[in-house]
Amino acid sequence: MQAPVSTNAPPEVGAALQRLRLARGLTLEDLSRIAGVSKSMLSQIEREKANPTIAITWRLANALGVPIGELLATAEKEAETIRVIDAHETPTLPGNHAGYVLRILGPMELAGKYEWYELTLAPGGELASQGHDPGAQEHVTLLHGAVEVEVGHSKRKVKTGGTARYPADQQHIVRNIGKTEAKALMVVIHR
Q: Are 99 and 132 in the same domain?
């Protein structure tokens, strides 16, 4: 049985930040530009001279393509077989103007190959997308609510529990046609 990890000290973000940055071949200047965090602040964090705010940690995690928890993980946690990403660590793309919220469920390292999302649509909300790369496919499974999928000139309604599969290399829309919120899982496969 392992000794309990002390929770009195803040997590040592610096070592994890440096390890992830170097693994991606990034300089402090590169990461500074990508994350929008000053080079001097990054240096202080890596040397454990400063603890980043949650907002800065979030920006760094997004820039590195990792869950925020990976920057906050202790060595003991990194060795775990099962890695759990808490809901508040899941990157979210709010499309409030269009009535949708898209939670990125898949790991960033698979982006551009396999991507999966949780799509929440307000009544009348829609997620309209331009065509993705040639051969891309989307699969939308409706968890609850009522949606319609439109690809080109074709429209199909999807019932709860049903899955719409369609080419995503042309303009496509997933639209809530019901009076209540709709929720779906969306998988994008790039070829």
A: yes
Measured CA to CA, the distance from residue 77 to residue 69 in angstroms comes to 10
| 151 half-sphere exposure, CB direction, 13 A CA radius | 17
CA-angle at 43, arms to 38 and 47, nearest 5°: 150
Same domain, 151 and 178: yes
The residue from 78, 103, 126 where one domain ends is: 78
DSSP letters, 139-175, are EEEEEES-EEEEETTEEEEE-TT-EEEEE-SS-EEEE
- For residue 2, give the DSSP letter: P
Q: For 14-58, what is each residue's pLDDT tens digit?
A: 888 888 888 888 888 888 888 899 999 998 988 888 888 888 988
Is the pTM higher than 0.70? Answer: no
Which tokens belong to 29? 């200047």
In angstroms, what CA-CA distances link 69 with 30, 175, 186? 22, 33, 24
Q: How many structural domains comprise the chain?
A: 2
Phi and psi at residue 172, in whole multiples of 5°? Answer: -150, 155
For 115-140, write each residue's pLDDT tens digit: 999 999 999 999 999 999 999 999 99
Spatial contact of 80 and 71, defined as CB atoms under 8 Å apart? no
